[in-house]
Design a protein that fits this description.
It comes from Paenarthrobacter aurescens (strain TC1). The chain is of the alpha+beta class. 16% of the residues lie in helices and 35% in strands. The protein has two helices and nine strands.
């Protein structure tokens, strides 16, 4: 019943104004509901989207919470770095980043960054 339905992510923010500024200035996204002061609704490619709401729980998750699929991770990382986005470096068994990008055995690639609220976000390129 759900497999053919659209799905979207929900992200927490301690400071909704700070989150709005980050998503606009760093990621080039504008909310669909610019007049709301306690939540933000964003639309991205192919009708997908995500919701940001104000809560004191923001930044407590230690896992990737949302990601975008891009055609070129390296170019996207470079563009976002130009806007001040800082990418994370990881060195775990089976996952090591070089210059912020992990290349997987199947040829796919990924990079991770934190938003203004401490949420872990990713960009991904299939192999």
């Amino acid at each position: 019943m759900l497999k053919d339905q659209q799905v979207g992510a929900v992200l927490p923010a301690q400071d909704i104004a700070r989150a709005r500024a980050y998503y606009s200035e760093k990621l080039g996204l504008e909310p669909e509901n610019p007049d709301d002061d306690d939540n933000l609704q964003y639309r991205c490619g192919d009708g997908t989207g995500f919701f940001v709401y104000q809560t004191s729980n923001a930044g407590t998750a230690k896992n990737t919470q949302m990601g975008w699929t891009v055609s070129d991770v390296k170019a996207t990382v470079q563009e976002l770095r130009g806007k001040g986005v800082k990418f994370e470096d990881y060195d775990f068994p089976g996952l090591k980043t070089e210059d912020g990008i992990a290349t997987m055995p199947d040829g796919s690639a990924a990079a991770w960054f934190l938003d203004s609220e401490g949420n872990i976000l990713s960009i991904n390129q299939t192999g």
